Amino acid sequence: MEQLQFLFKIIGLGSASGLVYHNNTIVAVGDNSSFLYEYNISTEKLERYPLQENAQENTPKKIKKDFEAITQFEDTIYIFGSGSTENRNTMVQVDAKTKKVIATQDLSMLYASMQSFGEINPEDFNLEGAIYNGENWFLFNRSNGKKSKNAIFTISGKNLTDEFSILHNKFKLPKIKGVETSFTDAILVGNQIYFLATAEATESTYHDGEVLGSIIGQIDVTKMKLKSHKIISKTNKLEGITLVEETPETISFLICEDNDTEVLESNIYKITLKK
């Protein structure tokens, strides 16, 4: 109970950055890839679906869309670029059943507004998690470095391109080996946000650093206050979380790891927490 358990390795999916679980199937994105991946756990079959024209894996860092966040509401999957450079401001909407792209939107105005509202410089802006509950969007900025810009942005309004309002909550997250952890993904279950955060010895949102460990934590969405946290790895850069099972006493998640290499394989873990 409450220990990170290795389940399996997905061959063909590299640098996994986010995942959604449904009916024994994992839908995932990788931050180096412009494909959406669908993995059937029973058959171990991996399918991939292009998110743009001329989609490729292991996209060069300077031009990649950096898809870091994925969330699903009803029959639509939403995939967000991190915003850490100007060409990473894209959101892609995908039909959850057919895996075909419904729409692609440029969120440059939203991301610029978030930076201004949250007093975050462009070099400190790096979205790593997204949640949509049908009413509000919750977007998670990952802090790297000494400026401590961990934040949750709550976005409401007609759309995410030009008619929206923004709320901003800063967070001081727990440290590992003296380095503050930073958001890497999150999921909403009821009124509780369960999030992952990793400590990485880097002061850049662009370059990777030595991984010092990862935590799982809980935030009450009505109060936007940190309720609890637990260190679940001292070595892994855990990047994606999805709900797999819930009972009255426990809650279980699948978690993916970003290996920060060009090797096309990703480890999937499971953790079960007491409520």
CATH superfamily: Apyrase
Radius of gyration: 17 Å
The domain count comes to 1
* Average of the residue pLDDT scores: 93
Q: Count the strands? A: 22
Do you know the CATH topology? Neuraminidase
What spatial form do the alpha-carbon principal axes imply?
globular
Plain-language structure description:
This protein is mostly beta strands and 275 residues long. It has a single domain, classed as Neuraminidase (6 Propeller). The chain has one helix at residues 108-117, and strands spanning 5-11, 16-22, 25-30, 35-40, 45-50, 67-73, 76-81, 90-95, 101-106, 127-132, 137-141, 151-156, 165-170, 175-176, 179-180, 182-189, 192-201, 210-220, 225-233, 238-246, 250-257, 265-274. The strands form 6 sheets. The protein has a 4-stranded antiparallel sheet, with no helix packed on it. Strand 10 (127-132) and strand 11 (137-141) form a beta hairpin. It is globular, with a radius of gyration of 17 Å. The model has no long low-confidence stretch (mean pLDDT 93).
